[in-house]
Design a protein that fits this description.
The chain has 138 residues and is an alpha+beta fold. It has a domain at 2-65. The chain contains 3 helices and 4 strands. It has helices spanning 2-11, 51-64, 95-105, and strands at residues 26-31, 36-41, 108-112, 118-122. The strands form 2 sheets. The chain has a two-stranded antiparallel sheet. Strands 3-4 form a two-stranded antiparallel ribbon. Strand 1 and strand 2 form a beta hairpin. The protein starts with a helix and ends in a 16-residue tail after the last strand.
């Protein structure tokens, strides 16, 4: 993930690509939001000239590090992982409860027949959740 962030940062401000004649190159892009086509500039090819410098810096840092690679580092108290387990501002319910609530919403449907009587239709159990193994992942 950090490498993709570095790649993005190094190539964000690339100039617009040009043809051999010196004309700027464009592509057309469709937007689902505006339901219109619009021109999008084509960026110049990426250059990876920073890679050898990055590799040398990593190697130098590793060589200068005198501690063993198997050491355990603890996160500081102000690290975001210690702030909250989730982005929700309340305690999370158990996964099994959420799935059962989800299933129960679709188990029966009330339908009004032609005489105005309300009848309950029972739907079969959801096949993709039967036999499902629930596992809390944090």
């Amino acid at each position: 993930m950090l490498l993709s962030a570095l790649d993005h940062n190094m190539h964000t401000f690339r100039p617009q690509a040009t043809t051999k004649d010196g004309k700027l190159t464009w592509k057309k892009q469709y937007s689902k939001r505006t339901i219109r086509w619009h021109p999008e500039p084509v960026k110049a090819e990426k250059s990876y000239e920073y890679i050898p410098y990055l590799m040398a810096t990593i190697l130098k840092a590793r060589l200068d590090d005198k501690a063993t690679a198997e050491r355990v580092l603890s996160l500081p108290e102000e690290h975001p992982r210690h702030l909250a387990p989730t982005i929700a501002l309340r305690e999370s319910p158990e996964l099994i409860d959420l799935v059962q609530e989800y299933q129960s919403r679709f188990q029966s449907k009330k339908v009004q027949d032609k005489n105005g009587l309300v009848q309950s239709l029972s739907l079969p159990p959801t096949p993709f959740l039967s036999g499902f193994i629930f596992k809390e992942v944090l």
